[in-house]
Amino acid sequence: MKLDYFFNPKTIAVIGATDRIGSVGRGLVKNLINGKKASAQGGSRRKIFLINPNRKKVFGVRTLPSVLKIKEGIDLAVIAVPAQIVPKVVEQCIQKRVKSAIIISSGFAETGQKGAILQDKVKQALNRADTPFVGPNSLGVLRPCTGLNASFAPLTPSKGNIALISQSGALIDAIIDASNGKSWGFSAIISYGNEAGLTLTDFLNWAKNDPKTKVIALYLEGLKNGRQFFESAKEASAKKPVIVLKGGKNPGSKKAVFSHTGALAGESQIYSAAFKQAGLAVVSSIEELLDISKALSWQPKCKNGIAVVTNGGGAGILTADYCFQLGIKLPKPSPAALRKIENSKLMHPGYSKSNPMDMVGDALSDRYRIAIEAMMSQKNISGLIVIQTPQTMTEPIKNAKIIIEAQKKWPQKPIVTAFIGGKLTEPAGKILEKNHIPNYPDPYRAVRAIQSLIINQ
Amino acid sequence: MDSADCRKVRHEVKLLNYIIKNEPPRKRFCFHFWEYRIQLLNMLLDFKTTKKLLAEYKIPQAKAKIVKTAKEAILFSKQNGFPVVLKIFSPKIIHKTDIGGVIVDIENEKDLLTSWAKIEKIAKTKKTKIVIQKMIPGEQIIIGAKQDSVFGPIVAFGLGGIFVEVLKDISFRLAPINNKEAKKMISEIQGNKILNGYRNREPVNFKKLEKILLSLSLMISKEQKIKEIDLNPVIANKQDVFVIDAKIVI
């Protein structure tokens, strides 16, 4: 399905445009107008029409009373009027032959029977007119690379290669905020709302083929057509990594079941079985979703065989424990690698000579360099975790630069880092991330991140 | 018609309403009726049809027969050898162990006669048939399938007894599955070590086990009328894997 009108519309009508403080319409208009500037800079001009019969001007821009008063054709109508008015507005949009619509308004199936009837009415009308639409009860659609922010999110995220498709709009708000000032960003963010029109599966199919998307991150609570999702997820995950976070794991109301199978096949068990069978990476928290998205967004995939380089014994032991727990192999350093390290004469005589490679607490940057180079040169090492604890002589920024150099030298071998600590390590962490090396404040998160990069055999 | 009869009729009418409207009774009506409705709508396949259906999908079953007299039971045991199992069978009774409807480890003719007396009593009061079956040594396994409301047909695999009931050590897949998935389903349960052999026990026949999983996955995908299937227990040993008891809900 072609969704170009949603992601790069040339003309947009905002129905329910307002500058009233505390309203959804205000956020929407602000985001779209800001995006207009960005799209103009990008070379693709975008026209935005503000529709409101009750206000002459919004943010100083003249409004029109109805979408029917617009002379040009409309690629995308964004509807943010009270639910009861939506059917009327939708009729006008159909008459205007708008090419696509996003219904932001809430008060539909999510509120109960009455809302469901209203939603059905809107759905029937748009389906008859063959107009693709998102929502209702949606935060909106964002496409940073075209400067489109057709949502009432409080911030506009930066460009990147992660497509976030979420059933919850509020979670999107939080994730955009979390990404603010970070080096990772989004190819698209979609709040699919009540799925009366386009569904999660439709957007998954789109993201699978979107050249700007490298990683697909999903948040969902329930599926309307599980089988369809499963088939599409299977295809998508064969093309690019798909990460899923599912809310709503409590055992639901007990239905009458007659078999052990029926009694044991709880909803959450079947969901996670389906996700795994479809090849999705299942995560259990927002933090994990973002940690893994970041790693997959920046780093290549690799075989199972990871080296750990550390300047702290305790941190190294913890990392080795996590690797064991998550099935990550830590191959021993080869005689050649050890010889290389010994010959450098830089290493502390008490260094571990194994993997994790513990270089002892007083390790300066040159020790990091020699250990990283020796381990990365080894054939059965396919990726690297660098651990740093901030000790009195540690040189975080120098270490970061050495890691960045190593990444350039071995671009096929992923590197993740755990610069553990706070204030002392933060600047170095930022440098790493600017250079697309994912850094985590805890070794567990680094191990989990590199695990997501390992190709299952 | 006295007042008790009137009440009975009123209940029947209300019950029918529930069946037609497919809604649970209001609180003040007893749970019993709801159960009754469920029994009417969800049917267990009878012995013969179950046997036939499993055979159609080439799922191996332990030799079993419906017997009417102790004589027939003895004849079966002599032909197929001891030990044997006696159990009641009725499409209406779901948990037969709970009412003492299964007697295992019947080693000889004397045992068989005393067991027969017990089971016949239960069968008479519950109006069920009696099945005799050859007892097979090995590990107890449960293989199941159902139509899931979100994902459609699914299959399940676990070890029998406390492993599934208490520890919930079970793996699921959407059906139909391929051989690779069947292998993974068996290997990913915690209890896999038991199937692999422990304390001088030999590993079970995994090939045959996988075959049953594949067949059941095909069956639940093709037979849309089937809601739930339990093959429980399935007994696996070094040479063979047999379904001992099967419950098919339509």
What does this protein structure show overall?
The complex is a heterodimer of chains A (457) and B (250). Chain A contains 16 helices and 18 strands. Chain A has 457 residues and is an alpha/beta fold. In chain A, the strands form 4 sheets. Chain A has a 7-stranded mixed sheet with strand order 9-8-11-10-12-13-14, sandwiched between helices. In chain A, strands 2-1-5-6-7 form a 5-stranded parallel sheet, with helices on both faces. In chain A, strand 10, helix 5 and strand 11 (186-191) form a beta-alpha-beta unit. Chain A is elongated. With 250 residues, chain B is an alpha+beta fold. In chain B, strands 5, 6, 7, 8, 9 and 10 form a 6-stranded antiparallel sheet that branches. Chain B starts with a helix and ends with a strand. The relative contact order of chain B is 0.14. Residues 18-38 of chain B have low confidence and may be disordered. The interface between A and B is medium-sized, with 21 and 31 residues.
Topology:
The complex is a heterodimer of chains A (457) and B (250).
Chain A: H1 4-7, E1 11-15, H2 24-41, E2 47-51, E3 57-58, E4 61-62, E5 76-79, H3 86-96, E6 101-103, H4 113-128, E7 133-134, E8 140-143, E9 148-151, E10 159-166, H5 169-179, E11 186-191, H6 200-209, E12 215-220, H7 226-239, E13 242-246, H8 260-264, H9 267-277, E14 281-283, H10 286-298, E15 306-310, H11 313-325, H12 335-344, E16 357-358, H13 365-377, E17 383-388, H14 396-409, E18 415-419, H15 426-434, H16 443-453
Helix pairs in contact in A: 3-4, 6-7, 10-16, 11-16, 12-13, 13-14, 14-15
Chain B: H1 3-21, H2 31-41, H3 47-56, E1 64-67, H4 70-80, E2 84-89, E3 102-106, H5 109-126, E4 129-134, E5 139-148, E6 152-159, H6 162-165, E7 170-174, H7 179-187, H8 192-195, H9 206-222, E8 228-236, E9 241-243, E10 246-249
Helix pairs in contact in B: 4-5, 7-9
